[in-house]
Each structure stands twice: as structure tokens, then as C-alpha cells.
Design goal:
3-stranded mixed β-sheet, alpha/beta, 13 strands, 716 residues
């Protein structure tokens, strides 16, 4: 399957790392609660009761499905970074090594310390390992060891290899399937997952419970393989991510409502056996929607790289593999001592989490051979303050006091002549951590040039669109491929002077957006000297819309400003460029951000050089371009209640664009000799005045041309 990120993989997704930590941490809580379940587990407290089963019911329908969904996302990113053989070796080295080590060394101690409870003689531990631990579970006539909580690791490995075979073996089918799911409405994806889970819960799992054994678990495969595949297909879909974040409140409300209904149904099933079907179906619906609810929560609240996150990402698998054995061993000593229930629960949960964490930190973290056994790389990833590992292109040293890094997005379409200057101007900015070149289906040497620049500097990321999709889609792809906390746009034929990004970061304060006055220069001419003005001007919604009415450009060029944008604000509000727009996509994004409460400030020129090409200001836009720009105001108007002044500004902008649209339609109608269509363009008083004025201008210009022609002949 073609990768959006062709030259190199983007930085790790912090939300996916955080989600993985959250999922495995919830499993630790889940196993601790099992001590208090009314059903028999490896260890049971005297305080077991329905209260624990209700808490367990909150997690059970989706806890493992979330693990497989995250596994699919992780596998998709790794597939783009590795060759097939390396991918298989990596997955086997991590998942299967950790599984074998857990089953042979870690898990057996759980049963060993409880042999006396089973009224079995307890001799030496090594004798138990050799003679009893490998024949605990019987499957298809074979005795197998106890897989315990590590059972899912072979499943993840098998699904990863299957994903590799499908994507590499049938790339066209895989790509078509990915596009089909990406384009599907969000709620159709959620509803399909909910229905599938409900079907499994009601009609499959009661007849065929899951076993946790790879070769004998049809129900497990029916539940987890589709979820893993969904993670693979949606991992790199920016459109799905944006749709999901945009619907976060509705998804959370539905998940909360289904949780309440499922708990009531669980209670009803205890007093009325006929409620069995309702219990199972609502449990399935709840489990299906919760995968998306938790995924969205991570995207909104946990997408923040940090040293603590890096530590947790490395520690979580070893801690998880050790936690259940620690829980059973410690619980064997604590349970039955009649401690108060809250103290006992806190002690068990703390022991299950903190003792494995201490073992990891002291023994595993810095020991290569132990790291390998726990499914980790032999050595820790080196910590870097910058994304650059090598920087042959000149880059000034960073100011150590500020840790704000910027991603510069350059959408490039047939920009071979100017791209290198734009890229190098970005790389000389000390605070630029990523320069993402998005080739938008160029037919010249733009993509080859981009790849050569990426080979020179590790900060350069190349995204190949394959086909021309327009600047909005290209910029969204750049947002998805980068992780820096700040984002800014640089047109491929423009460039920046040294120090621009640093100057903006020094002035931004707590704002979400900061823009600067553009320095305009004709093509092939050095930029003029400009005044440096560090004063800040707060931009509100009304002023911004008024500044985009197509009048003479003001000193701040609001229609063309290229601000720094805080990624956190974009993610919290699911803000991305509207990909159907090829004109005014910047206006729509900034207007929507201001309507949502963005703190937008403007300052004087800091060094963005806007190169004016001959004829570029008179570019003729298509009717569709103008139609989408006009109609975007209708969507903006629905965001929140606006003041009367704001509504007037929005109406004026819509009218301004509509007048330009009707002029284009009038020209088309005249050429087609369609009298009815021509008349329909005069559909509002404003359009009628505008069109009459334009027609008068054209008549005047034509009369001048007719007058000048014989005059030139007479004087020649």
C-alpha cells in the first residue's frame, strides 16, 4: 500500500504511545478487580461481591479489543518504516520472545505459590518448572503451559504477519479498502463495530467461549482480528482522525449512555433471566463504541510528547508481564489477614503496579539481555532535544531556555525551480524541528529534489500524494506526518529570512496563533528593507472576516498571512483544512479557529518573503472554487451564536464571494448563449450592481481598444 510518508516515517505518535500505556494499565486494574469477583479466579478475597463485578463489567467488553486496535495502528506505522523481513524479525523478537519468557519464567510462579490451596504438595520451584508447569492446560489433546495474561502476544504476531502479507501481496486491494473505510461516515464505522460486537456477545461467545490459545480460539479471532485490521487501515488516516475528534462529545455521550444501560441490564439479568439477551446485546454495543471513545480521548488529552511518556512507553510491557505474578504472590500473603477492604484493594493494586515498575527500573531498563527477554530493544532509544540526528545543512544553535519546536509544511506542485530555496530557508531557523515537503502530484522534478533534500538533513520529511489533491489536502497530510507543537505554512515559491520563527516564538506568549506582515517582492528581485515592529495586535473574528473582503490589502494582509499555529489547539477542536476547497482554505481555517475562541495575534514583519509571480494576482478561479469559498461561510455561521457585527461581516464576505461567482457564471452563460442562465446570475441586488459595474468596465475597455486601433494605424 503506498505510504503517505515516503522518504521517512514521522515522529512517534504520542497519543498512540499514551493509549498503549493506558490500555495495559487498565488490564492491571482489571486483574486486580478479579480478586474481588464472585467468580473464582487465581486468588479470591473474602470481600468478593457484586460491586467488583459491576466495575469489571465497565472494562470487560472493550479492554482487549482496545489492545488489538492499538496493535493494528502500531503495526501499520512499522510496516512503512521496515522491509518485510526486518518487520517479521522485529515482531517475532519482541512479541514471541516476551511470550516465551513470560510463559516459562514469570507465569508459573503464580500457580506454584497457590499449590497448597489446591491441596497439592509443594516441592522445589525448579522441580515444579520441569515436571508440572508445562502441562497445565489441555487443548486438542495436547497439554500446554499456562499462558495467563500473556496469551494475546502470539495473536498480535500472527495478525501483524497477516497484515504484512495482505498489504504487500495485494496493495491495490488494500489501498481500495483503506480508501473505502476512510470515506465512510464516522458513525457507519462505529455502528458496524457495535453491531459486530453485539452479534458476537449474544450468539457466538455464549456457545463458544474464548480460550486464549491461538490454534483453538475461533471466537477470539472473530472478535480481535477485525479490530486489529481496522487499526491497520485507519492508522494513517488523517480524515478519520479529524472526524473522530470532531465528534468526540457525541461519541462520549453515546458511550456513557450505553454503559449505563448495560449496567442496568446486568442488574436486571440478576433478577430476571429473560433479560439475558438484552444484557449481551447492550454489552456488545457498549464495547464497540468504547474503542472509539477511548481513542478519541487519547487524541484530545494525551497527544503530548514528554520524557515521562517515553519512560512509560518503554516500561509498560515489562511491568504488564510481571504484574499478575506479583499480584498473586503478594495477594497470597495479604488476602485473609482481614485488612479493611479499601486498604487491601489499595495494597494489591499498588503492589501490582509499583513492584514491577521498581524491578524494571533497577534491573531491566539498563540491562540489554533482560530488555530483550521482556520484548524491548537491547538498548534504550537515545534522548534527543531535536529531531535532527545529523544536520549537514547550516542550522544555528538552539536557545536552551525555550523548548518550542516548529514544523514547517511546504505543499509543492511543480515547484522544482523554487523548492530548494524555501526548504533551506526553513532549515536555517533554529527552532524548526521538521520541514515537511508534500509533493502534490508534481509532473516535474519536485519529488526527486525533495528526496535529495531529505537525504541531506534528517529534519526533512517527504510526503508523496501521488495525484494532485490541492493545497488543503497536502497541508493536512503534512499535519499528520509531523509532531512538533507548532505548525506553520511556507509556500513553495516563498522563503523566510533567518530568525523569523524565533522572533514569532518570542512574541507569541499564550496565544494560539501568531502571524506577521508579509514582505512582498517581485520574482527575481531581492526583498526590500522592512521595518521591524514587535507590537502585537489582537485579531478578533469580525476584523479577520472584514480583512478578507477582497478590498485593497491592509498592512497585515489578512488573506495571505502565514501564522504559527499551536497544534494542541488544532487537535482539541479537530481543526484541519477543508480538502474540497482549493481557494480560501486558509481563510476558512482561521475564521473557524477564531469562531472557536482562538487567541490570534498579529505582529510586524519578521521575515516572511512573499514572492509575487507575474499574473499570479489575476489568476482566474473556477466556479467550483468560488462556490466552496462562498458556502464555507454557511458552515462557519453554525459554529456558535455571533454578535450582530460578526454576522454582518460574515454576510458581507459571503456576498463578496458570491458576486465574483456570479461574474464567472455570467461569462460561462454568455459563451454558451444560455440567456436564462445569464439572467439568473442577477439573483440579488448586490450581484446585480456588481455585474452591471463589471459589464460597464468591460464595455469601456472594449471601446478604448476600438478607438486606439485606428489611431495606431494612422500614426504608424
Amino acid at each position: 500500500m503506498p505510504s503517505a510518508n515516503e522518504a521517512r516515517a514521522p515522529a512517534r505518535r504520542a497519543d498512540v504511545d499514551a493509549l498503549r500505556i493506558l490500555a495495559l494499565s487498565l488490564l492491571i486494574c482489571y486483574h486486580t478487580l478479579l480478586v474481588y469477583s464472585v467468580d473464582n479466579w487465581r486468588l479470591n478475597s473474602e470481600y468478593a461481591g457484586p460491586w467488583a463485578d459491576y466495575l469489571i463489567a465497565v472494562l470487560t467488553p472493550w479492554r482487549m479489543s482496545l489492545v488489538f486496535f492499538i496493535g493494528g495502528i502500531a503495526a501499520r506505522f512499522m510496516l512503512d518504516k521496515m522491509k518485510p523481513a526486518a518487520f517479521v524479525r522485529d515482531r517475532a523478537g519482541k512479541l514471541l520472545t516476551a511470550f516465551v519468557f513470560a510463559v516459562i519464567v514469570i507465569v508459573p510462579f503464580q500457580r506454584y505459590v497457590r499449590l497448597d490451596e489446591a491441596h497439592m504438595p509443594r516441592g522445589g520451584y525448579f522441580d515444579y518448572l520441569l515436571h508440572q508447569s508445562m502441562s497445565v492446560v489441555r487443548s486438542d489433546g495436547l497439554w500446554l503451559p499456562d499462558f495467563a495474561h500473556a496469551w494475546f502476544l502470539p495473536f498480535l504476531f500472527t495478525y501483524s504477519v497477516a497484515a504484512l502479507a495482505f498489504i504487500k501481496g495485494a496493495p491495490r486491494i488494500a489501498l481500495a479498502l483503506q480508501r473505502l473505510i476512510e470515506r465512510a461516515p464516522l458513525w457507519s464505522i462505529i455502528a458496524a463495530t457495535m453491531l459486530w460486537f453485539a452479534f458476537l456477545e449474544r450468539w457466538v461467545l455464549p456457545q463458544r467461549p474464548m480460550t486464549g490459545i491461538l490454534t483453538d480460539d475461533l471466537s477470539g479471532h472473530l472478535k480481535f482480528a477485525p479490530v486489529f485490521a481496522l487499526g491497520v487501515l485507519l492508522a494513517k488516516s488523517e480524515s478519520f482522525h479529524v472526524k473522530a475528534l470532531g465528534a468526540r462529545r457525541r461519541v462520549w455521550i453515546v458511550a456513557g449512555a450505553l454503559l449505563a444501560i448495560s449496567l442496568v441490564a446486568l442488574w436486571a439479568n440478576g433478577v430476571e433471566p429473560h433479560a439475558y439477551s438484552l444484557t449481551k446485546i447492550t454489552r456488545g454495543f457498549y464495547g464497540g463504541v468504547m474503542i472509539f471513545a477511548v481513542y478519541i480521548f487519547a487524541g484530545v488529552a494525551l497527544d503530548r510528547p514528554s520524557k515521562l511518556l517515553s519512560y512509560g512507553t518503554d516500561a509498560v510491557l515489562p511491568v504488564y508481564l510481571m504484574h499478575q505474578t506479583v499480584l498473586v504472590v503478594v495477594g497470597d500473603k495479604i488476602v485473609g489477614r482481614h485488612w479493611p477492604p479499601p486498604l487491601e484493594l489499595a495494597a494489591l493494586l499498588g503492589a501490582a503496579a509499583l513492584i514491577p515498575l521498581a524491578i524494571y527500573h533497577v534491573f531491566v531498563r539498563e540491562t540489554p539481555w533482560l530488555r530483550v527477554l521482556f520484548g524491548l530493544r537491547p538498548h534504550l532509544r537515545p534522548e534527543r532535544t531535536s529531531m535532527a540526528e545529523k544536520q549537514p545543512l547550516a542550522a544555528p544553535p538552539r536557545a536552551p531556555a525555550r523548548h518550542e519546536e516548529v514544523a514547517v509544511l511546504i505543499a509543492a506542485y511543480n515547484a522544482e525551480a523554487t523548492l530548494e530555496r524555501a526548504v533551506r530557508s526553513a532549515l536555517t531557523q533554529p527552532d524548526v524541528a521538521e520541514v515537511c515537503i508534500i509533493d502534490d502530484g508534481s509532473s516535474d522534478g519536485t519529488l526527486s529534489l525533495a528526496r535529495s533534500l531529505a537525504a541531506e538533513d534528517s529534519r526533512v520529511i517527504v510526503v508523496a500524494q501521488g495525484v494532485n489533491r490541492g493545497p488543503a489536502a497536502a497541508r493536512n497530510a503534512g499535519v499528520a506526518a509531523t509532531r512538533s507543537p507548532w505548525i506553520t505554512i511556507l509556500d513553495a515559491d516563498d522563503y523566510m529570512l533567518p530568525g523569523r520563527i524565533g522572533a514569532l516564538l518570542n512574541r507569541v506568549g499564550g496565544a494560539d496563533f501568531i502571524g506577521d506582515v508579509l514582505v512582498r517582492t517581485p520574482l527575481g528581485v531581492d526583498p526590500p528593507d522592512f521595518k521591524t515592529d514587535s507590537a502585537l495586535h489582537v485579531l478578533n473574528f469580525e476584523a479577520f472576516v472584514e480583512g478578507n473582503l477582497g478590498l485593497d490589502k491592509g498592512p497585515l494582509d489578512l488573506g495571505f498571512v502565514k501564522p504559527l499555529m499551536r497544534r494542541d489547539f488544532l487537535n482539541r477542536h479537530a481543526l484541519r483544512y477543508q480538502e474540497h476547497m482549493r481557494l480560501g482554505e486558509d481563510y476558512e481555517l482561521y475564521a473557524r479557529a477564531l469562531a472557536l475562541g482562538a487567541d490570534f495575534v498579529l505582529t510586524g514583519a519578521t521575515g516572511y518573503i512573499s514572492v509575487e509571480r507575474p499574473g499570479s494576482l489575476s489568476r482566474k478561479h473556477s466556479e467550483d472554487d468560488l462556490l466552496h469559498l462562498r458556502d464555507c461561510d454557511d458552515g462557519i455561521a453554525r459554529i456558535r451564536p455571533f454578535t450582530a457585527a460578526e454576522r454582518r461581516a460574515l454576510a458581507r464576505h459571503r456576498t463578496s464571494v458570491d458576486c465574483r461567482l456570479q461574474w464567472r457564471r455570467l461569462i460561462t452563460a454568455v459563451k454558451a448563449r444560455d440567456f436564462g442562465a445569464a439572467v439568473s446570475t442577477f439573483h440579488t441586488p448586490a450581484a446585480a450592481v456588481y455585474l452591471a459595474t463589471r459589464l460597464g468596465e468591460q464595455a469601456w475597455l472594449r471601446s478604448l481598444a476600438l478607438f486606439r486601433a485606428p489611431l495606431r494605424e494612422a500614426t504608424s
